[in-house]
Write a sequence for this structure.
């Protein structure tokens, strides 16, 4: 009896922003994930909001062409008190989403709390705690200049952890312990 080849997919994760946008690319083969790339797109030097959106679209398009992801996961803007900030973040997310849709990529959004919960087991984890868990999980040493890069990577990892069973329903985990119990081969 031949073994079925492990399914492989590339996931692009994006943490939208209008000053710094973080991204992470991971490769998933069966139950194992590896880091492909992570980084940031800086827009602080641009004063015009439309130019920032154009840069997000062009750079996201470039990432898609370079890494050829099978899907895109985005952090959903969280509710804030400043409506102008929310509007700008929503536009940034929408433009990144449009770049993915332009390549017919399936797109999934995750709330910030869901991402932190998936990666660290704590929905209130700090950016530093998320980065530390990702370093351990994906076995990389370098600390990125901006935590936005690990935030983008966390979105991709969160998406990888959401498994869809044969019933078509996703499996979600209540915390890190339950994930590890079900995925011993993914954690070494």
């Amino acid at each position: 009896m031949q073994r079925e080849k492990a399914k492989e997919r590339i996931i692009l994760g994006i943490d939208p922003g209008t000053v710094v946008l973080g991204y992470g690319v991971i490769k998933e083969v069966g139950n194992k994930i590896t880091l492909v790339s992570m980084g940031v797109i800086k827009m602080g030097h641009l004063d015009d909001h439309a130019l920032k959106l154009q840069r997000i679209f062009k750079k996201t398009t470039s990432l898609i062409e370079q890494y050829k992801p099978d899907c895109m996961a985005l952090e959903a803007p969280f509710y804030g008190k400043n409506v102008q900030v929310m509007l700008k973040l929503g536009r940034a997310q929408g433009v990144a989403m449009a770049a993915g849709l332009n390549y017919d990529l399936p797109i999934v959004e995750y709330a910030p709390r869901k991402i932190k919960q998936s990666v660290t087991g704590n929905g209130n984890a700090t950016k530093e705690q998320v980065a530390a868990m990702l370093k351990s999980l994906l076995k990389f040493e370098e600390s990125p200049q901006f935590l936005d890069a690990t935030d983008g990577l966390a979105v991709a990892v969160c998406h990888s952890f959401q498994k869809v069973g044969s019933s078509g329903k996703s499996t979600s985990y209540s915390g890190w312990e339950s994930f590890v119990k079900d995925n011993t081969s993914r954690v070494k």
Notes: The helical segments are 49-67, 83-102, 112-120, 127-138, 147-161, 176-182.
